[in-house]
């Protein structure tokens, strides 16, 4: 701890400077005020001196001091000049035993170095204050920039919300289209199932028709075979009739030849009961009748069978034609249904591809929107964190600036008070300025009078708080009235 004291004499304008240093334990409180050796001059003028002391000890340490005085000739400015008779006292011509300390020059040099150090520290404090003011301006600029950027981001938020709402509406439209397409797909599948059932029924009908056609073909084949048999029988019967006719004609011819060539002895029988000609004619008539009836029966039976076969053939031909027409119609229906089924399959595949593509696009759009939203949230969180860090730094800088401003104001107030006291010519004034790293800074003001007036400044460097107290005759740390700034 170092103490610098400045004392001003009220009567003869004596200005002295003294410096004292003390070191002791941290828990102890030490406030040392030293009055230097007051220089004496036989001339009316300015007289000053420098003093130095060092103290090491515990709670209330003792101290020693030496003073070195100098004087200079001149005329004082406090009284009006006058011409008087000068009388010289011989005792004043004797050399004085001033008991000058041989180390006074070193002490003076040390005091000058201490004053230079204090001035350097004060200049460093001023530079630091200027730097902190620049940092404050820079932080204020950054703060304004971040506030403006935050406003821009807040202006962009409705755009992103609108884009998200648009994507949601598109997703809802895609979902509605997917539902509609699903309903259409189910309807097409139902129609396809109906066509499949109809196709199966038509296939069953075709199989039944084919079976009937096979059965009818068998019947036609049987009828044709029967017709062929009947035709063969008719031809055989015709040949047999022709043969019998020729046979009968030959027999008749032979009989006529025998009858004509043979001489017959006929015994005339007058009995009229036997008549050969009539008998032969009757027999011939009977045979002719039988042959004609047989021919007529054969022809009628042949004609009836032919008519029946023709009717059967016509009927089976009509049935076959109708069956062929039905088969052709069924083939056309099958082809049409097959084409419709293929078209339905193609449409179904296209609808499924469209639904899958719409789902993929919707998922891609939703994933893109989620990624953008996550990026924006992350950027917003990062900006908030940066803003919080900047606010914390700004608060710390403002706290340090406030402490330095209060300390500078206190130094300025002390210096102005000293200048005021120096100008007014107050008596002895002691200014004690002590500083330590992380310790307590005390400044004591003592004015000559009935009661000493002491002002102290205590600053804790570690916490950034500054306490200013003013007390009447109280030691450092015990104040009657105090002001504390945080």
TrEMBL record:
It comes from Trichechus manatus latirostris. The keyword Electron transport does not apply. This is Keratin, type II cuticular Hb3-like. Residues 192-247, 320-400 form a coiled coil. GO terms for biological process: intermediate filament organization; keratinization. PROSITE patterns: IF_ROD_1 (PS00226), IF_ROD_2 (PS51842). GO terms for cellular component: extracellular space; keratin filament. It comes from the Eukaryota. Belongs to the intermediate filament family. PANTHER family: GATA-TYPE DOMAIN-CONTAINING PROTEIN (PTHR45616), IF ROD DOMAIN-CONTAINING PROTEIN (PTHR45616:SF51). Residues 111-422 form the IF rod domain. The keyword Coiled coil applies. One of its GO terms (molecular function) is structural constituent of skin epidermis. InterPro entries: IF_conserved, IF_rod_dom, Keratin_2_head, Keratin_II. Pfam families: Filament (PF00038), Keratin_2_head (PF16208). Keywords: Coiled coil, Intermediate filament, Keratin.
């Amino acid at each position: 701890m170092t103490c610098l004291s400045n004392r001003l004499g009220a009567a003869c304008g004596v200005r002295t400077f003294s410096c004292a240093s003390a070191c002791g334990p941290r828990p102890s409180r030490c406030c040392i005020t030293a009055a230097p050796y007051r220089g004496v001059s036989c001339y009316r003028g300015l007289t000053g001196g420098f003093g130095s002391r060092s103290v090491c000890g515990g709670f209330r340490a003792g101290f020693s001091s030496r003073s070195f005085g100098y004087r200079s000739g001149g005329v004082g400015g406090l009284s009006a000049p006058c011409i008087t008779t000068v009388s010289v006292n011989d005792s004043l011509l004797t050399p004085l035993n001033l008991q000058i300390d041989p180390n006074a020059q070193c002490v003076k040099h040390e005091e000058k170095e201490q004053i230079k150090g204090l001035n350097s520290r004060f200049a460093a404090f001023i530079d630091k204050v200027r730097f902190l003011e620049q940092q404050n301006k820079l932080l204020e600029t950054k703060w304004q920039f971040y506030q403006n950027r935050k406003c821009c981001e807040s202006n962009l938020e409705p755009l992103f919300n609108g884009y998200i709402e648009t994507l949601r509406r598109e997703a809802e439209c895609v979902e509605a289209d997917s539902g509609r397409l699903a309903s259409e797909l189910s309807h097409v599948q139902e129609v396809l199932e109906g066509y499949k059932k109809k196709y199966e029924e038509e296939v069953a009908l075709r199989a039944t028709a084919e079976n009937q056609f096979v059965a009818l073909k068998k019947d036609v084949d049987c009828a044709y075979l029967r017709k062929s048999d009947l035709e063969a029988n008719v031809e055989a019967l015709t040949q047999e009739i022709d043969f019998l006719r020729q046979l009968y004609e030959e027999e008749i011819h032979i009989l006529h030849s025998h009858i004509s060539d043979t001489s017959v002895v006929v015994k005339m029988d007058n009995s009229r009961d036997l008549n050969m000609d009539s008998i032969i004619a009757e027999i011939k008539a009977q045979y002719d009748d039988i042959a004609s009836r047989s021919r007529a029966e054969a022809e009628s039976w042949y004609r009836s069978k032919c008519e029946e076969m023709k009717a059967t053939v016509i009927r089976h031909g009509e049935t076959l034609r109708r069956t062929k027409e039905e088969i052709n119609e069924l083939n056309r229906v099958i082809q049409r249904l097959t084409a419709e089924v293929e078209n339905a399959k193609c449409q179904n595949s296209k609808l499924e591809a469209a639904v899958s593509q719409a789902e993929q696009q919707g998922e891609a759009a939703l994933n893109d929107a989620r990624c953008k939203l996550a990026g924006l949230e992350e950027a917003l969180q990062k900006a908030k964190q940066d803003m919080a860090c900047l606010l914390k730094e700004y608060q710390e800088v403002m706290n340090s600036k406030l402490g330095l401003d209060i300390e500078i104001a206190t130094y300025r107030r002390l210096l102005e008070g000293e200048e005021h006291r120096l100008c007014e010519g107050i008596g002895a004034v002691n200014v004690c300025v002590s500083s330590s790293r992380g310790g307590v800074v005390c400044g004591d003001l003592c004015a000559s009078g009935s009661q000493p007036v002491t002002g102290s400044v205590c600053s804790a460097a570690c916490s950034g708080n500054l306490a200013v107290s003013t007390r009447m005759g109280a030691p450092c740390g015990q104040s009657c009235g105090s002001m504390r700034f945080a």
